[in-house]
Specification:
The structure is a single chain. The chain is α/β, with parallel strands linked by helices. It contains 13 helices and 17 strands. Strands 1, 2, 3, 4, 5, 8, 9 and 10 form an 8-stranded mixed β-sheet that branches. Helix 9 runs parallel beside helix 11 and helix 11 runs parallel beside helix 12. It is elongated and about 90 Å long. GO terms for molecular function: 2-C-methyl-D-erythritol 2,4-cyclodiphosphate synthase activity.
Length: 388
């Protein structure tokens, strides 16, 4: 798809059914509106964002302040349809993706599939099959079940879909449909696709996501455990130390019999150092040199496993949990295989993990390079962490 795309986020509602501004609701450190903005800012196809605001214009502008793509804030109208129209009129893209800002959980897959369908046929909307049996009644106000509410019909559920946003359109076709709609039919527009349907233009449904819910009432608010999305990160660590005489060889907290040891300010435990850097790197919290400087007398000869315990505490204080660790030692001599179980156990204890979550491997370098010539030992490590 080579067409330019404008995302129009409608954020002008009054939240009367909520009793407070739902767009400012905290989803674990991020507002509903900011999360919606982020979803489209991270979408490669989107070239600009148009935010449609009401009396909350200052708040809307503030939430978009860190958006890496061009953003404009425009005034909404008296109705949802008018607000969407104002956003589309201000957009510059060949395609427009009109999205309810109160749907913060929209995925990149949903956005992309809907845009691609709109590029092909002019209009598309994500949808999910209706799970519940639907009853059509003689009357209702759309908010409560009135007294003596009688069932009229039960539609065939297999042909019913709940439509979501973003609803995506060819912008020129959208404006042409708008021009064709008279005032009477304009009142029948319940969503953006209705504009196309009422003017005889086709609309294609694409696969939506049940998680792409709209926050309309208090019951729609996620429970505390759901407010912060599960975020996982991966970090890589690398360290190397020279082998010298009159030093102990300590790897993963295990003292290994050998005629040489590793040179360093601390105990020079290259394996533990690589793992600590992987863990810190995953959380973007610097490296061991930043936390334990090699010119600080406090760390002279320090036990690296004790430093690893402190790194684990730093991760915890910043809201991260270590999930697993995988490390590889590059060492020509001595043979390390007999000591690996003890290394795994030590690292697991230091980082508060089960042994099964810690992998340590060792390989030679076939006498190639720094480590292959026996001049030193190096280690690589990878760590997976998860937000808590």
């Amino acid at each position: 798809m080579e067409k330019t795309v404008s995302a129009v986020l409608v954020a002008a509602g009054s939240s009367t059914r909520m009793g407070f501004d739902k767009l400012s609701f905290d989803l674990g450190g991020e507002t509903v509106l900011h999360r919606s903005i982020r979803a489209f800012a991270q979408c490669p196809q989107v070239t600009e964002l148009v935010l449609v605001a009401g009396k909350n214009r200052d708040f809307v502008a503030q939430q978009a302040a860190d958006c890496p793509k061009p953003v404009q804030v425009v005034a909404g109208g008296a109705t949802r349809a008018e607000s969407a129209k104002n956003g589309v009129l201000a957009a510059h893209g060949e395609l427009v993706a009109v999205h309810d800002a109160a749907r913060p959980f929209v995925s990149a897959a949903v956005i992309t599939a809907t845009l691609e369908a709109a590029a092909r046929c002019g209009a598309a909307a994500p949808a999910v099959p209706v799970k519940d049996t639907i009853k059509a009644a003689a009357r209702g106000d759309g908010k409560t079940v009135p007294p003596d509410c009688a069932v009229q019909t039960t539609p065939d559920r297999s042909t019913l879909y709940a439509v979501q946003t973003p609803q995506c359109f060819d912008r020129a076709a959208y404006l042409a449909a708008l021009a064709e709609l008279d005032a009477t039919r304009a009142r029948l527009v319940t969503d953006d696709c209705s504009l196309f349907e009422l003017t005889g233009r086709p609309v294609q449904l694409t696969q939506g996501d049940y998680a792409n819910l709209k926050i309309t009432t208090r019951e729609d608010l996620p429970r505390p455990a759901q407010r912060k999305e599960t975020e996982m990160r991966i970090g890589h660590g690398y360290d190397v130390h020279r082998l010298v005489e009159q030093r102990k060889l300590i790897l993963g907290g295990v003292e290994i019999p050998f005629e040489k040891g590793l040179l360093g300010h601390s105990d020079a435990d290259v394996l533990t150092h690589a793992v600590m850097d992987a863990v810190l790197g995953a959380a973007a919290l610097g490296d061991i040199g930043q936390h334990f400087p090699d010119n600080d007398p406090e760390y002279a000869g320090a036990d690296s496993l004790k430093l690893a315990c402190r790194v684990a505490q730093i991760l915890k204080e910043h809201g991260w949990r270590i999930e697993n660790i995988d490390a590889t030692l590059l060492c020509q001599r001595p043979k390390l295989a007999p000591h690996i179980p003890a290394m795994r156990a030590n690292l697991a204890a230091a980082f508060g993990l089960p042994v099964e979550a810690v992998s340590v491997k060792a390989t030679t370098e076939e006498h190639l390079g720094f480590t292959g010539e026996g001049l030193g030992i190096a280690a690589h490590a990878v760590a997976l962490i998860e937000a808590v």
